[in-house]
Amino acid sequence: MLIRFTRLDDKRHALEIVRADGSLERVELETKSLWLHDLTHYAVEAEAGIQDGFWGLLASGKTLAEMNDRTGKGIEGYAERMGAVEMLVGAVSGALSGVPLESVSENIKGYFEHLGRGGSFPAWLTSEYIGRVHGRMRSLVGHWNGTPFGDTMEIVWME
């Protein structure tokens, strides 16, 4: 799936996805909070090979409306997995804002244990993984910062 972020102005961007089957969706969004969150999802999910997170579900045919349906109906059957992915995105966002990288996976592990889900802590969620996500985020943010208004940043989702 091709993902396009078009820089409209200093406050808004367009998100466009083009699936392998040729179907296309486009929305205009507020940039300040949504763009970084969406990119963090991309880095977290791509580095872990998660196919049933936000971007993987879009690639498989879920629509943006389904993914943003606040009733949860659009992601029925995926809610628990999406909750875990959101937790990872939140933790990685913390690392991007100054939490030491080496403590992020330990903080997440502690949270899993607090929830009584210590046994379901993913083995791949290491400080090395967090470092790879952080590196990917630096690259993506740099790409975006170099994208002039009116131009588009394109990235490819693994399929």
Outline the structure in words.
The protein has a 4-stranded antiparallel sheet with strand order 3-2-1-4. It starts with a strand and ends with a strand. By secondary structure, the protein is α+β, with helices and mostly antiparallel strands. Helix 1 (31-48) crosses helix 4 (79-96), helix 4 runs antiparallel to helix 5 (101-114) and helix 5 (101-114) crosses helix 6. The protein has helices at 31-48, 54-59, 64-67, 79-96, 101-114, 127-145, and strands at residues 2-7, 12-18, 24-30, 152-156. It contains 6 helices and 4 strands. The longest helix has 19 residues, at 127-145. A hairpin with a 4-residue loop joins strand 1 and strand 2. It is 50% helix and 16% strand. It has one domain (2-156).
Give the averaged pLDDT, no decimals. Answer: 87
Strand content: 15-25%
Cα-atom radius of gyration: 16 Å
Question: Strand count, sense and closure of the main sheet?
Answer: 4 strands, antiparallel
In total, the number of strands is 4
Number of helices: 6
- Main β-sheet, spatial strand arrangement: 3-2-1-4
Instruction: Outline the low-pLDDT stretches.
Output: none
- Measured as a percent range, the helix fraction is 40-55%
Structural class: alpha+beta
Total separate domains: 1
CA-based shape: globular
Q: What string gives the helices and strands in order? A: EEEHHHHHHE
Q: End-to-end span in angstroms?
A: 7 Å
